Amino acid sequence: MPQRDTPDEPRADRSGERPDFADEPVREVERGGVRYTLLGTAHVSPASVAAVRHHIESGRFDAVAIELCSSRHRALTDRDAWRNMNLFQIIRDRKAGMMMASLALAAYQRRIAEQFGIEPGAEMKAAIDAAEAADRPLQLIDREIGVTLKRTSRRLSWWKRWVLTNGMVLSLFSREEIAEEDIERLKQGDILTETFSEFADQSPELYESLIAERDRYMAARLRAENEGRGERRVLAVLGAGHLAGTVEALRADADPVEEVRELDAVPPASRIWKFIPWLILAAVLTGFGIGFSRSPELGWSLVATWVVINGGLSALGAAVARAHPVTVLAALCAAPLTSLNPTVGAGMVTGAVEAWLRKPRMGDFESLRDDVIHLSGWWKNRVARVFLVFFLSNLGSAIGTWVAGASMIKQLA
Description:
about 60% helix; alpha/beta; 2 domains; six-stranded mixed β-sheet
């Protein structure tokens, strides 16, 4: 099968000068009767926007592919998407953590836009609009962000997972300005990759899931969408950091359908994670049993230790989130029990109670994207505060479980 990999340089304008976007990298690969033009963009560069429009408006392409999944495409194009959020459903389906991750990415993007006067993702929005204006089909070729995060999580040890998750969420509250060198790095990658760049540099597992796998996935999606449909030209708009890997994957002999199926699969969670909650339950109940067998006073002291420390730290987390007083009380009562129940977390209870007591208004959904940029917005916006209550009460309960457990061991020693 003939394959070609050639550069495609923008032509000089009538004055003989190269256009502003001439430095945007372009690679071409031809296989299966399809000529793929891969345009490497900087996600925060006006030149990239101009390059995208130039290529699509040239009329040379039969289809346009972009480095977005359906959920990120919806977030970029549908500003009313947050209005349809069902908080109770999200909490019940254990998706509150994923929702906070999405808010983290959105907040990071908006902080860049506010600080530097540039809009991350503008080149993708330009591709969407230009493709629609030119009546060209739009192909979303990136893997769903939820699948990427789950596959990433499955690869990490429990400690790296804990550091990554809490580091990302706690970074939301940072008041530090985004350094210009971070913006420069964005020109070589994308928002998703940059968010985890500090960890990816030190973790082969993160690099594989966030970068290498997505290169293979996007190449497979391009081939699956376009091969077997006759001769055609396809423009693929990718972050510059994905250009080399996607070109290499396009030239490989992997079956695209099988490749997509393999990379869309989420590996099962380690069995040890299923057993840890039950081990905690068994250990705590055994401690209670030993305590009461020695003396009722010791037994009740152990129970009080568990309830006060576990419930107290969870309630403290809810209070820091400025939850309703009833929600704080719910955290105090629920955490000692949920810590012994592998199927329910303290945050599920406190999040639901907070959402019920302080029902978000339509204005909270409409202003959610703007509010989460600033520290105070997480407490002002009722939607954001529900997730804040969920996270901090869960964090307090998790810390309380280990602190209370250590205290009980000392009493029994």
